[in-house]
């Protein structure tokens, strides 16, 4: 899990994705729509993408993408992100992580 830990330490919001995943696109669009600028790692374009995917699965991400980290904490996949959005908890989480300022 060292690789993923290093990768998520870089920015307030990190999304692991695949270029062909429609749910990944939806989550990236939602978070970017609030003004956040997430670091997006497309696993199918990374040289060590398979290793990163294995680490995400070991962390409990099933399916492995999209996987969203906010404030270096694993939030989860699309179900968790949409639940936070419906409960009006996503924006406050992004603000606390320093990803957006409102």
Automatic annotation (TrEMBL):
Q: Which Pfam families match?
A: Glutaredoxin (PF00462)
Please tell me one Gene Ontology term that the record gives under cellular component.
Answer: cytoplasm
InterPro entries linked: GlrX-like_pln_2 (IPR011905), Glutaredoxin (IPR002109), Thioredoxin-like_sf (IPR036249)
Q: Which UniProt keywords apply?
A: Cytoplasm, Redox-active center
Q: Tell me where on the tree of life, at the top rank, the source sits.
A: Eukaryota
Q: Which ranges carry the Glutaredoxin domain?
A: 13-75
Q: Which PROSITE patterns has this protein been placed in?
A: GLUTAREDOXIN_2 (PS51354)
| Location(s) in or outside the cell | Cytoplasm
Record's family? Belongs to the glutaredoxin family. CC-type subfamily.
Instruction: Give the matching PANTHER family.
Output: GLUTAREDOXIN (PTHR10168)
**Protein name, per record:** Monothiol glutaredoxin-S6
């Amino acid at each position: 899990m060292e690789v993923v830990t290093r990768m998520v330490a870089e920015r307030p919001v990190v999304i692991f994705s695949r270029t062909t995943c429609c749910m990944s696109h939806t989550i990236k669009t939602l978070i970017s729509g609030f003004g956040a600028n997430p670091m997006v790692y497309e696993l199918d374009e990374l040289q060590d993408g398979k290793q990163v995917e294995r680490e995400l699965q070991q962390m409990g991400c099933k399916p492995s993408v999209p996987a969203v980290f906010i404030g270096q904490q694993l939030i989860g996949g699309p179900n968790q992100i949409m639940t936070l959005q419906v409960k009006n908890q996503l924006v406050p989480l992004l603000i606390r992580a320093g990803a957006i300022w409102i």
